[in-house]
């Protein structure tokens, strides 16, 4: 189980870095387009499509697992202060199970969509250029699958405190 935790945290960390890289790449790409447009009166026609289809989707979906491992997703802890430690662990476990189920369903439907778009070879026509965008449909299912796996590992970590401590150690 420890090797699975290390593998999952490593993959989640890499996906988080790819999401961070997407922010920087998006900023540089847009800045270059603005610079070229204002200085040389040249516009790169593909910038809006690349930003919307690649950078934004990578940023939104790939870091989900890393955010789950670090417990940085939005949460509402309305009654947690009143729960005993045992009840809090049970509550956290149930939340992780529900989150894993939701991520699993989202992953399943998005894998189907990504494979469908791959089979059809989805393109976007920009002026006289056709840009393939079917690749971008894989960001969501990869992110949701990893988040589902992370939630399952965290749920098991809530059940077994010794494993939970090792998960917290691996995430740091």
Task: Outline the structure in words.
- The protein is mostly helical.
- It has one domain (about 1-170).
- It is about 75% helix and about 5% strand.
- It has six helices and two strands, in the order H-H-H-H-E-E-H-H.
- It has helices at about 1-40, 45-60, 65-70, 85-120, 140-160, 160-170, and strands spanning about 125, 130.
- Strands 1-2 form a two-stranded antiparallel ribbon.
- Strand 1 (about 125) and strand 2 (about 130) form a beta hairpin.
- It is elongated and about 65 Å long.
- About 25% of the residues are buried.
- The model has no long low-confidence stretch (mean pLDDT about 90).
At a glance:
With 172 residues, this protein is mainly alpha-helical. Helix content is 74%, strand content 5%.
Radius of gyration: 20 Å
Count up the domains.
1
Instruction: Work out the helix count.
Output: 6
**Which whole number gives the mean pLDDT?**
90
Helix content: over 70%
**For the largest beta sheet, what order do the strands appear in spatially?**
1-2
Proportion of residues in extended strands:
under 5%
What separation lies between the terminal Cα atoms? 18 Å
Shape: elongated
Oligomer type: single chain
User: Low-confidence stretches at least 5 residues in length (pLDDT < 50)?
Assistant: none
Structural class: mainly alpha
Q: What's the story with the biggest beta sheet?
A: 2 strands, antiparallel
What sequence of helices (H) and strands (E) makes up the elements?
HHHHEEHH
Number of strands: 2
Key features?
mainly alpha; 172 residues; 5% strand
Topology of helices and strands:
Layout: H1 2-40, H2 47-61, H3 64-69, H4 85-120, E1 123-126, E2 129-132, H5 139-159, H6 161-171
Antiparallel strand pairs: 1-2
Helix pairs in contact: 1-2, 1-5, 1-6, 2-5, 4-5, 5-6
